[in-house]
Amino acid sequence: MPELTLYVEDQWVSPWVMHAMAALEEKKLPYVVEPVTLPVAGELRAELLDRAGLAKVPLLRHRDHWCTESLAISEYVAETFPAPAYARLFPANLAERARARQVMHWLRTDLFALRAERPTSGFLGEAPAPVTAPLSAEARAQADTLVRVAGQFVAPERTTLFAEWCIADVDLALALRRLVASGEPVPAHLAAYVEATWARPCMQRFLARGARA
Ligand SMILES: N[C@@H](CCC(=O)N[C@@H](CS)C(=O)NCC(=O)O)C(=O)O
């Protein structure tokens, strides 16, 4: 039985799976990827409900600990495999760590119109189909907020939120990619931020839909 198993959805369009996988990759941990079709059904559903309470992905199994929610997973991985023996996921500086958490919680609980109108299937998965229909007024306002906040927190000369990469960069770059992929105007330094984050090795396994580079 492998020590670590990450259950993922088999369409490879989940930003939350991307987040959890980036955490494991950044820590350079060996793990097994278990793709599942959503909604999880049958015996597997019963097992996941029994072990983790929810049959959602990402779901990390570490020995007899089963856990869903991408942020819970990355925090568990960060604390179970801490720096300096393993790479850092969260900033060491407490103010920066709080900022990273602010960004990650915000991106999980807001921007719903933008997320609906610029789905990740536009740029992730087997056959990405960019959506270019005009944004509704609500989604436009959310896109403007996203660009304003990202521009405030990512300095023009940087391709990371802070001096060092952190796990919040995955989420912020993913959110901005919704705009970049559909041709929405984004300041050049934020477009460069998205590209640099996308090129980071921790993203490669997800972007290759589970294949090892
Ligand atoms: N807030 C969760 C979101 C997880 C989530 O919504 N997962 C979706 C796939 S992207 C899922 O498993 N849906 C199946 C279901 O709810 O039955 C996280 O951060 O992990």
Q: Which of globular, elongated, flat, extended, rod-shaped describes the shape? A: globular
Strand content: 5-15%
Give the uncertain stretches in residue-range form. none
Give, in order, the helices and strands. Answer: EHEHEEHHHHHHH
Strand-pairing-aware structural class: alpha+beta
Please state the average pLDDT score. Answer: 97
Helix content: 40-55%
CATH topology group of the largest domain:
Glutathione S-transferase Yfyf (Class Pi), Chain A, domain 2
- Structural domains: how many: 2
CATH architecture of the largest domain: Up-down Bundle
Q: Based on the structure, what is the oligomeric state of the protein chains?
A: single chain
Please compute the radius of gyration using only Cα atoms: 17 Å
CATH class category of the largest domain: Mainly Alpha
Could you give the distance between the termini? 24 Å
Number of strands: 4
Are any ligands bound, and if so which? glutathione
Reported for the largest beta sheet, the result is:
4 strands, mixed
| Count of runs of 4 or more consecutive helical residues | 9
List descriptors:
single chain, 213 residues, alpha+beta, Glutaredoxin, Glutathione S-transferase Yfyf (Class Pi), Chain A, domain 2, 2 domains, four-stranded mixed beta sheet, 9 helices, 4 strands, 49% helix, 9% strand, binds glutathione
